[in-house]
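Support request, please re-run this one:
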Amino acid sequence: MSTPMPSSSSSSSSSSSSSSINSSTGSSSSSGQSSSSSIVSSSLSSGSQTSGSTSTGSQTSTTSSTTTSSSESSTGTIPTTLTYETTYTPTYLEPAMMYDTYGVFLGNVYENLVWLNGSTTSQILPWLAQNYTVSSDRSTYSMSLRSGISFQDGEPLNSSAVYFSLNRVLVLDGSTPTSHGTQFAPDFQQMLNFSLSTALCGCRQVYNAQYVDAILSQNFVQVAGPQSFSIHLEHPNSFLLYALAGYNYGWILAPEFVMQHDLALWNKSSNGYSLPYSTLTGNLSSQIHQYFLDLVATCDSGATPSGCGTTYLDGSYQGSTAGTGPYSLQSFDATTNDLTFQSNPSYWGGGYQYAGGHKLVPFFQTVKMVYAPDLTTRELDVRNAGNSGQAMIIDLPNSNLYDVADRQAWTTNHQLKSTLSGVTITGPWSNIGGSFIGFNTNVTNPVTKEMYSFQPFADQRIRLALADSVNLSEIGVTVNNNLGQVMQNIIPPTTPPQGSYNSSISPAYSYNPVMVQNLLLDAMKNPITSFTFTNGTTAPSGLFNNTFGCPVLGANNQCSSPVAHSIVLNFASGDAVNQAIEEQIATVVNNVSSTYNMGLTIDIAPVPLGFMFTNIANEYAFNFNNWAVDYPWVLSVTGLFAPSHFIAALVNYNSAAYTKLYNESISADAAGNISGVIAISQQIASLVNQQVPYLNTFAAGNVAVFTSNIQGLLILEQTGGVYYWSGESG
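Re-run finished. Output below.
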């Protein structure tokens, strides 16, 4: 049966001194410009609406396609197990660190204070929080929790759990067992004291008791009562609620479960840690403080000399009941990369029931996330599941759409129609993200760890030449099958606040083989002689040498004795879209080089995805990445691409002009100047298009392939992943 998600009504008043929302009404009032976020909401729980719909509004993804299945499954038996065959393997399972697709899957275990509501980008829905009030200067957010909610291990949800969970993100400082300063801690710390974040200050923290005291003295979370608390910001902004709703670092965890399991790991003598509190004592508040002191005692010591101790949740090998969600994590098999989830019979039902919607009830007793890298296997398995009445979802690359979809229905009517019995296709849906290929300007030899003398992408002309070699529109049709539009700039079309995306800001490159020829000839005859390091400082003379080909062509219009160089372009194994892009680049560039005997050769080579991510930062001249925002706000986009930040660090991009504009946009947001944020963000998009540190390829466009006995899929548009699992008889 199909039941629509609730949609909230809103009103605004410029004279209001604060903004508030109460989940019992689902209505909101706000002062100033409204923030925005979006989900594709088609709940995968009993009594929710069907995933086969693509109607607009708050129900499902707003797309121009319709979705049908070829037929229902051949059996009326309702399955109790759902199998999801995926191509992904988890990088981290620790909520404070997780950034890949598993961060979406584990949203069935852990939950947020507030969440994203509807397919628009303008609604925040109270979830674990019952209501919230925002001060007029946006520096204080006061919240009350819903009563009667428990974690899966039986602990009560209360303000202490919020205090523990959010401060734990800050104390961890994005630390892994081998590094510091990655991932999500900066998303919160940017609202507080920058100097306490490794990623933001560019400095090295000393993780000790003084560091813990400094973090906690920020008063980020102030407990007011058992079910009430306030969040305080040193740097007010317009996106805190979206950061809390947007991704896994806002998940609220069971303090006692986490602390007991982490101490059991850290107390092992083989780790060599000297914990100040091998046993936690006193009330919960005291234990939390002791736990934080133990956590920093594992940093840069014992088994982790350049990171912090492994957390239990990062492995979760024996499962996790530290969440409030509809499923608990039963186990993770590190050998097979499979995860197993069990339904939570005591699930409280989610926030939709308090905003005009239905209570969410987990339908499947067991959900299995199975790593299945072989496409043929996945397609055969879902075909068999559709015929036998099993419940299954599979990952399908866009390039293989017509393995399961009717080509004519999609190309002629923009209708996704399954060609498999008992199988449904839904989509395409977009998220606030996309794909890009980065031009690394400081490439390192993986063996010697020294930078190569020849750094072709330090030259903007060579970057432009490669970008001009690609016909993205053609690849979008022939390989990506019209499942994602060509990116015009770094800001995706659906990015809030409204108006951030400007389609007239177009890239400096377009498919033009003649321009490729002219750019390469100019770069060959007049090679650059000035280079910069990642930190922006000028490289010593003679360290780099971009000479290739010859300075003057001979009488036959060719180089007689060219200085030869090869550039290897890597793509992830099985990635047909990026392979097609690189094949076009190689064909066009090698043709120009051959015509003039430049000695410049482009080679392409597949690399396992996991290995590429492990080594991507410095060792690939040309690397790809798919990305989605941490939270749905334009500053999350421009922050990802900002110099020294995550994406820019992958290609060693540094631009003083970008940094200046980005800081100005942060100041505008802090002042509540949303129109200023939009204008400056568009200037940033234009600047990046001119400098060409990246070849932006396609905005995200995804489809879900699943057996037709699954009647609902709740998909978070921000990350483009399936959020809730459930089902009902077909």
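The longest helix spans residues 576-596. DSSP finds 20 helices and 27 strands in the chain.
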